[in-house]
Amino acid sequence: MTVSRARAWEYAEKILDVPRHHVPVTLKHGKSGVVLLHNGRVLTRCYNSLVGKWGAKFMAEALGVPLPDQGKKVQIKVSTGVLFRAMSISSLNLRDSSAPQILERLLEEAYYQRGPSNTAAR
Questions:
Q1: Second label for 97, Cα 20 to 30 Å away, from 44, 91, 103, 104?
Q2: What is the pLDDT of residue 2?
Q3: What pLDDT score does 10 carry?
Q4: CA-to-CA dists, residue 65 to 17, 73, 76, 99, 121, angstroms
């Protein structure tokens, strides 16, 4: 049984409540889409639809890593600020007319929050 987005957000809010510099997360690309995990629990997911695929691509960009190929995963450490922006991107309705401006802002903020090297800590 998969975890609903609402239930995943409940867990994610607990993680985001305490600001931290390095939160270990895993970006996993499966058959049904892409999930972002913390300690094996789902934080958010992007389903395997056209909009979901774009959301997953932008979420990975916010995290500072390339989207892994299907069946692969990547483990990274990011700050809670970057994590919040990546999760917000995964929930963004990319069909909305204001989405491009919001997406651009979230990606820009995540880029600067990742620090001088502009890559995720591995």
A1: 44
A2: 66
A3: 84
A4: 24, 11, 8, 22, 10
